[in-house]
Every structure is written in structure tokens, then in C-alpha cells.
């Protein structure tokens, strides 16, 4: 289990750091700027959100899950108060929150801090713009606390996600990624188990979201995951799959793009960790978020040995996260399922 836990943590961190340099560009622009297909850590250019960061530094995509895990292992549980404390601690770190936090997360943190919007602000019947990928981006590392229990992983991911993304589509995306990661933790798990769990998680997350969260209008997460998997399976090669997933599914801020794209890329890469991460880094748009999800899922499936040893060296040198120690604490985390 330790090998898989550390693999998921490292895969998510690597995806975040590597994708930070390519974010917002399309595939052609990425290749033009970096001289081809990106397969290593690059210094983010000055026209990206991660401007000023060093090659290998993480952004909000992994850091919010990392802080949440630290609080959870210290408390021996992950409930709403623990998740709330973790979110506020993360929001107090300027290099993460001030630079990278998305609009949905910023609005939610403001409310938690007591900054209530004026009463005359217009609020539509459905706030569809909040169906973003900020819940799903942190789901893979948080799912590790469930030690492979898919339903518990879904509940843990939703506990953390509801604070900022309490709607059926965002929670469906978080549950899909959490379920995929938990399934990947199985000793003899394969890519089929991961895909099947992601579809189940998407359906279950939508059901939970409709019962405990806000309803928003948008495409079905489950249907779009099935579509993304079909695209990946029918593509003749990984390069074509990346292009078609970008064209038909998208890889942007909305959860119904980023999450299906991540699952599709896992399939297109035939479950290989590094191939999947690099595919996400090069697909364009919200690359760090998509790559974080892919790395978290495939790192759990294949373990830390599926990645070059220098990945951990770079991530620790640039971020000082102590992932090996955190992985041991997650293995020892009490299972409340």
C-alpha cells in the first residue's frame, strides 16, 4: 500500500508542477514554445498563472489536497471541521491562494471568513459557473485515506469538496476521481477497474450532489466519461487520442471537461503513469489540473516505481513536502469505513 500511496501523491504533484508550465495554451502553442512535446519540468513562462515559479514547483492543484491530508492525518479523521480548518490554513498561504485559487474557491473561502456578499447581489436560480474542476483536482490524494474502499473514498472526497464546490456536477467529478483512485489501490487492480469505478463514482457523486448540494445545469459527468473512454479506445495512437479528447471533450476549467479528459487520457496512455501525465501536460488548457488527476490515479495504480526516481528528488527540492513521511502516515490512517 505504501508504494501505491506514495505513487499517487508523487504522480499528482508531478502532474501539477509539470502542467503549470503549459497551462492555458493549446497543443500547438505548447509545442511551439517548448520545442516539442513536453516530458520534463519546465520553468513556467511569464504569461501563465504560475509565472515566477521554478521548474518543479506545485500550484493550488496539489497543495490544497496536501494541506488537507496533513490536517486529516494529524486529527486521525477527515470530517467537515477538519476539512474547513485545512481549507482556511491553505487560504492563508499567499504563494498558493493569492496566485492560484479559482473563482469558486475564492468565493467560498470569503464566506467561511465571514465576508458575506451584499444582499442586493443577483443570484441566479442555478449558479452553473460553479461546476468547476476545483473539487476533482484534490480528490485523488484525499481518496488515499480510504485505503481502497471506493464508497468511503467518495464520501471523503465529497466532505472536502462540499466546502467550495457544493453542487451535483462538481461533486460528481470529485467522486469519479476519488473512486478511480480507490479502485487503483487494489492489489491486483487494472485499468478496467479504474474506468469502471470512475463511472460508478460519477453516478454516485451526482446522486449525492442532488440530495445534499445545489443543483446546476450541465452535461452528465458519467456520460462524458463514457464518451472520453470511447474516444481513447478508438484512437489509433496516443497522439491522436490527445487531439480528439481536446477537440471533443475539452480540458478546461469546467468539471465536465477536465474530469472526463483525465479518465480518457488514462485509457489512451494504456494505464502507464508517465505517458498519462505527459499526455495531460500537452493536451492544453487546464493542463496542471488534468495532469494532477491523471498522475494521482495512475500513480495509485502503478506505484511510485512507475516514475523516474528523480521526480521525487525534484518535487522535494522545490517544495519540501515530505511525501514519503506523509505516505507512511496515510498508510497508518485509521479506516472509518
UniProtKB/TrEMBL annotation:
GO terms for molecular function: hydrolase activity; metal ion binding. InterPro entries: ADP-ribosylglycohydrolase, Ribosyl_crysJ1, Ribosyl_crysJ1_sf. Mg(2+) binds at residues 59-61, 286, 288-289. Keywords: Hydrolase, Magnesium, Metal-binding. Pfam families: ADP_ribosyl_GH (PF03747). Binds 2 magnesium ions per subunit. Gene3D superfamilies: ADP-ribosylation/Crystallin J1 (1.10.4080.10). Its cofactor is Mg(2+). Belongs to the ADP-ribosylglycohydrolase family. This is ADP-ribosylglycohydrolase family protein.
Amino acid at each position: 500500500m505504501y508504494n501505491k500511496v506514495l505513487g499517487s501523491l508523487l504522480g499528482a504533484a508531478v502532474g501539477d508542477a509539470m502542467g503549470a508550465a503549459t497551462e492555458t495554451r493549446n497543443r500547438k502553442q505548447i509545442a511551439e514554445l517548448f520545442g516539442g512535446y513536453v516530458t520534463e519540468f519546465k520553468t513556467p513562462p511569464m504569461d501563465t498563472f504560475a509565472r515566477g515559479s521554478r521548474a518543479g514547483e506545485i500550484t493550488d492543484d496539489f497543495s490544497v489536497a496536501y494541506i488537507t491530508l496533513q490536517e486529516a492525518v494529524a486529527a486521525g479523521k477527515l470530517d467537515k471541521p477538519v476539512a474547513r480548518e485545512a481549507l482556511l490554513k491553505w487560504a492563508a498561504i499567499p504563494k498558493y491562494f493569492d496566485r492560484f485559487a479559482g473563482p469558486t474557491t475564492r468565493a467560498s473561502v470569503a464566506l467561511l471568513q465571514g465576508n458575506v456578499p451584499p444582499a442586493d447581489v443577483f443570484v441566479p436560480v442555478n449558479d452553473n459557473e460553479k461546476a468547476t474542476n476545483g473539487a476533482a483536482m484534490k480528490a485523488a490524494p484525499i481518496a488515499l485515506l480510504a485505503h481502497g474502499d471506493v464508497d468511503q473514498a467518495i464520501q471523503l472526497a465529497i466532505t472536502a469538496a462540499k466546502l467550495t464546490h457544493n453542487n451535483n456536477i462538481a461533486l460528481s467529478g470529485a467522486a469519479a476521481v476519488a473512486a478511480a483512485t480507490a479502485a487503483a489501490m487494489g492489489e491486483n487492480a487494472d485499468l478496467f477497474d479504474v474506468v469502471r469505478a470512475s463511472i460508478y463514482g460519477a453516478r454516485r457523486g451526482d446522486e449525492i450532489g442532488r440530495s445534499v448540494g445545489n443543483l446546476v445545469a450541465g452535461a452528465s459527468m458519467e456520460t462524458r466519461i463514457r464518451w472520453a473512454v470511447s474516444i481513447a479506445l478508438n484512437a489509433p495512437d496516443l497522439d491522436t487520442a490527445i487531439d480528439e479528447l481536446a477537440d471533443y471533450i475539452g480540458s478546461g476549467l469546467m468539471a465536465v471537461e477536465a474530469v472526463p479528459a483525465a479518465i480518457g487520457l488514462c485509457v489512451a496512455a494504456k494505464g502507464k503513469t508517465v505517458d498519462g501525465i505527459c499526455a495531460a501536460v500537452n493536451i492544453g488548457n487546464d493542463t496542471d489540473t488534468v495532469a494532477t488527476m491523471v498522475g494521482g490515479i495512475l500513480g495509485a495504480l502503478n506505484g511510485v516505481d512507475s516514475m523516474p526516481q528523480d521526480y521525487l528528488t525534484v518535487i522535494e527540492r522545490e517544495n519540501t513536502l515530505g511525501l514519503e513521511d506523509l505516505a507512511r502516515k496515510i498508510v497508518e490512517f485509521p479506516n472509518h469505513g
